[in-house]
Amino acid sequence: MKTNYLSQAAMFLLLLGCSEGSAEIPDKPNTNTKQEESQQSGPDTPDGFELEIIDAPHYLLRFIAPESFSAGTIYGEPLTLQVRISSSAPREYAAYYDAQNPDERPQKAAAYKALCERYGDTGYSGIREFFPLYTGGFDALWHNLVSIDVTSTADYDAGHPAGTSLNDLCELISWTPRDYLESGYTDRYDWSAPPAYIPEKYRHITFYYNGQVNDGLHPFRIPLSECTAEDLLLMGSGQLEDGPLFLLRFAHAPEAGNSLQQFELKLTDERGGTYTVRTDVCKW
Predict the structure, then answer these.
(1) Would you say the pTM of this structure is higher than 0.85?
(2) How far apart are CA 214 and CA 218, in angstroms?
């Protein structure tokens, strides 16, 4: 089925804006010949919405070009920052839907096709199921980051005064489908035993609602000072609109008396675009 995820998501949000108990979500017309008979509502099935079947020759379903990013701490994870796409900033998409409907957005359809070809993602085979509110699972940045630099507005320790690079103190943690794509979709990751360096809340990267585990994503970590553009290629949790792009974990806390830190990150993408991201004041 050729599904316009964005328009359906917008409709759902509009319905949510109605007064509680006053809105009825209309049944979605069943135009998918592959879809089974209407399912009864259950704890995992939103009323009026049924699973949609995606049979695409591409693992990656959407590329996102955000206007800005945000960064902050993770509750319960000391000395760790997470970087995300800014939730309030505009972004552009090139998606599988565009390729299926090239007359609607021909430039985005061509961009999506070219990106899939760039990463060798043209021979995927496998049925995937989503509720109409597709919110990710197979996302990637449209323009990869090539460098990350971290500083603080305060002294961190004797060797890292305010404004100097903290990259040598940071470990970058993220996920990527690079190995999966390069292997021809055979190198899967066993998420039943995730590595301890992944924070507890991110040890199970799942799709929206139906709980399928994305075993095409491989976790990785690398000292930030050693990161190359190749390491950052296709980096991200796969759910880039409500999940992290990457994490930064510091090797140790700041020296006594310097517990209040405000970090500034400078991100550069492969086009030469730069993004400055500043955290709130962190008490470490």
Answers:
(1) no
(2) 9
